[in-house]
Amino acid sequence: MKPSTFAQRGENRWREAEQLLDRLDDGGPAPADVSRLPGLFRQVCGDLSLAQYRMYGLALCQRINQLVIRGYGHLHRDRDNLWSALWLGVWRDFPVMVRQEWRLFWLIMIFFWGPFWAVYASSFYDMRWTASLLGPEQIENLQRGYGEEEDFESLRDNFGSNFQMFSFYIANNIGIDFRTFAGGILGGVGTLFLVVFNALALGAATGYVRQEADIEKFLNWTSGHATPEFLGMVFAAMAGMRLGLALIRPGRKSRGQALAAAGKQAVRLLYGAALMTLLAAVIEGFWSPLQIPLRLKYTFGLTLAGLLIAWLLLAGRGREEPRAA
Fold first, then answer.
1. Residue ranges per structural domain of the chain
2. Per-residue pLDDT for 82 more than 60?
3. Phi, then psi, of 149 in degrees rounded to 5
4. Cα torsion at 8, 12, 16, 17 (round to 10°)?
5. Does residue 188 contact residue 107 with C-beta atoms inside 8 Å?
6. Dihedral sign (CA 171, 173, 177, 182)
7. How far is it, in rounded angstroms, from Cα 133 to Cα 176?
8. CA-wise closest residue to 283 among 144, 169, 203
9. What pTM does this model have?
10. Which range (23-37, 41-55, 286-300) has the least confidence?
11. pLDDT per residue over 163-177, tens digit each?
12. Contacts of residue 153, Cβ cutoff 8 Å, sequence gap at least 6
């Protein structure tokens, strides 16, 4: 193949690559066809290799080589910015999205804290409701872990190490979050049912320990990880409700289109749920078992709760917050 024929066949491809790279060099918003860059980059690299092998001339090789250098610079820069984009997504974009979904947030809060405080308050007057919700096995476990006569180390007897505890909490809490999210496919009813179920179980356990066991031991164990664990459940429930609402209120879209759009928002909420669940498991597995003064445990838990609340309320302020579809 003559150099002129080779250049004629590759001209359209090289010109498209040049135009795309010129728009990327301007520093504005990414072009709509930016996804074509990796494919064009591979083709241009092949052209350069062939031109050099066949010795098609310095000018032609230099032109193609310049495209390769520019394309590599953009693709390599994107990889370098991956962690920066991930950090901005967690630190700035996620709180903006949670504030944007404030109705779902407060809906979950009502469905959780209403039943929680109701069953907790009932334990002061009649323990039969609490006992019926917990069952004999759970009551035995609470006495074993938080009974006044039991040692704090008995909480770890079933695991043997902090890492095993961490692994157990990861598996358990992820299971709770996933079931809460998956319940949204039933129009959100399944999600709300699981939120109420968990609220009743936690309220009954807290009430029982307050009346029949050692509440300080209970708070010693739970004060550090309670906030991120609770937020993980809330974010998973919000994701489930986002799917459920798309099914029952698709608006002008078909249910399939509404579900696909809601799924993008729901997945982002699940990222936050996963982050909170991981943080809670780390604290519960490695911090909660430490035998340190209760005041220090309280200080840590309150400080962490304050930081997480400030993050959700303040991070990303000043950015445009479009309404969810």
1. 3-80, 85-314
2. no
3. -90, -10
4. -40
5. no
6. positive
7. 18
8. 169
9. 0.70
10. 23-37
11. 566 666 677 778 888
12. none
